[in-house]
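Hello again, I could really use a second opinion on something today. I've been staring at a protein lately and its backbone has me curious. You're getting the sequence in one-letter code plus the fold written as tokens. I'd be grateful if you could look everything over and explain what you see. No rush at all, and the record is pasted right below:
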Amino acid sequence: QLRAQNQVLKKGVVDEQANSASLKEQLKMKDQSLRKLQQEMDSLTFRNQQLAKRVELLQDELALSEARGKKNKKSVESSSHLSQEQKSVFNEDLQKKIEENERLHILFFEADEQHKRLEAELRSRLEVLETDAAQHQAVVDSLTRKHTDTIEKLQNDKAKLEIKSQTLEREAKDCRLRTEECQQQLKNLQAALGSRLEESLCIINEKVPFNDTRSNQYNALNVPLHNRRNQLKLRDLAGQALAFIQELVTALLNFHTYTEQKVQIFPIDSATDTISPLNQKFSQYLHENASYVRPLEEGMLHLFESITEDTVTVLETAVKLKAFSEHLASYLHFLRKILPYQLKSLEEECESSLCTAALRAKNMELHRDMKRLTAVFEKLNTYISLLVLPSTKPEGLLRTNYNLVFANIAASLHGFHDVLKDISKHYSQKATLEQDVPTATQKLVTTNDCILSSLVALTNGVGKMTSFFSNNLDHFTASLSYGPKGGREFISPLSAECMLQYKKKAVAYMKSLKKPCADSVPYEEALANRRVLLSSTESREGLAQQVQQSLEKIAKLEQEKEHWMLEAQLAKIKLEKENQKLKNSLSGHLTETIQEHSVLPNAAETKKETEKSLRDPIKSSSLAPDVESREDLIKNHYMARIAELTSHLQLADSKSVHFHAECRALAKRLSLAEKSKESLTEELKLASQNISRLQASKLMTTKRSYEDQLSMMSDHLCSMNETLTKQREEIDTLKMTSK
């Protein structure tokens, strides 16, 4: 760049020098012409002065001649002939001098004017040339300064580049040392990466049996990313659509109902006369409109309820759209069924005597509008049935055609709105004409007003629906066609349904993860407890056997308990009998004592004593035999002996169970040790095989790594040589430019 700028500046300086030289030459030529003009002007002024002096002399001579003539008239008269000739000569000469003087004055004036003009031009041009010369001189000075600066800069750059070349040579030496270190590090890294690669490949082969994203059929089962904002937006849009459908259903019900009333009263009132069979059939069909119109609202409501925050709403999962499409098809069937009757009814109305020409024209316009209305519903039904195909038959509609279907639905809604506007306009004109009919009643006027209000409501509702669908068309096309990550679409409705099931399971799993975990045993402690459980006497099998033995003992004890319960009941019965005998004997004895001690006045005290004696007959009476005390002693002795024997038996049982459990635990430990020995021998074999394989692979990898390193080093050296040659060339060019 400096070289190019230097050449451009040199060229500019040469051009400016040439221009200045040419301007100097022109200035010299102008000075020469100016000198010539000044010389001519000086000569002319000198000549003019001579002529002026001569004229003065001639005038003096003339005055003298006149004075002499007065004095010497005679001499003059004598010499008049001669003087006249001289005078004529003088006059001619004077006339010539005057003319020459006048011509010279003119030439002098013209020359003076031309000189002044030329002098002004030359002065102005001289000023311009001086300013140009000053500018050129300033440019030349600036260029010289700039060139000196560039030369100094290039010299500094040269010195810097020399220093840089020296540093680069030192860096090249350092790079050679670094390459050796990098080669060593590369060897180590290759070895580490090889081991890690083998580990990762083993993990992938063990943990990842196949990649499901490669196949569209498997990828369709993956759950796509959940877009909560998208779901809320779709639910909001579905709610708005449900409100619009409700308005549409209400308006259609009113329209069909009031149309039925109109058929009953015009052109023939059914209250006064019988209407035609055609109108009767038409009225009968119109009466069934609610069974075809109300399911539209129900179908849209089910579709709205199916769109929740937790689901994935796309055309493949919108199964409730099929019910709405079926209800719309049934309503279209209803419209097709009533259309011929409606058209014939209008034709019959035109043929009546009350129908005027204007009314007949409006009826024919309505005749065409009703056909257009049915055609618009057929289009809507066709496109909505196409939207149902992804959830029933995905091969029937390609994903690339979704945008086209939505655009056609929007266009059909616009056409529907236009048809309804035409119908409402034509029907309003028809109603005004029917009011002028002589037989028009107030009932007919109110019915027409109701039909017009229903048509206006229908038009407004469809207009809102059209604008709503057109405004959200981009959102529908973008949000109702996304699929799982890495894939383009859902393969079939079955895969979409499976995906939703997997999504529910994933949501349940995420919810379970959010629950706080219960307190658990640490992992190391659990491992230690597991080893203890595997090798201790308190293992599961031993405990199960102990529990089984304990259950058997409990069953035996229960049987013995029942036996001893029966024995105790028999003994109790015997004891009650003996007590009854004692009570009888004691009661007889007490009556005798009461009669003897009748002095005691208080019967209550005697009663208490009798009760006390009855409660404890053995203690109150001193008549108990020694046999019972002896039986009690024997019973107590045997019970103590039985308790001692049972304790010894339980101790012996527990010792036997303990020894049996220890023997079983030792056997289990022995089996576990044998298994661990076998597994360790297998691991040792595998380790030896791996060592041999790794040694072989290490030789191959080291050989390849050496070859790769040599190639990399050669490439690196070549690149360094290229950079050094480039830097040397740059240094040489800078030296040349600085010179």
Q: What stands out?
A: DSSP finds 18 helices and no strands in the chain. Residues 597-624 have pLDDT under 50 and may be disordered. The CA atoms of residues 183 and 712 lie 10 Å apart. The radius of gyration is 67 Å.
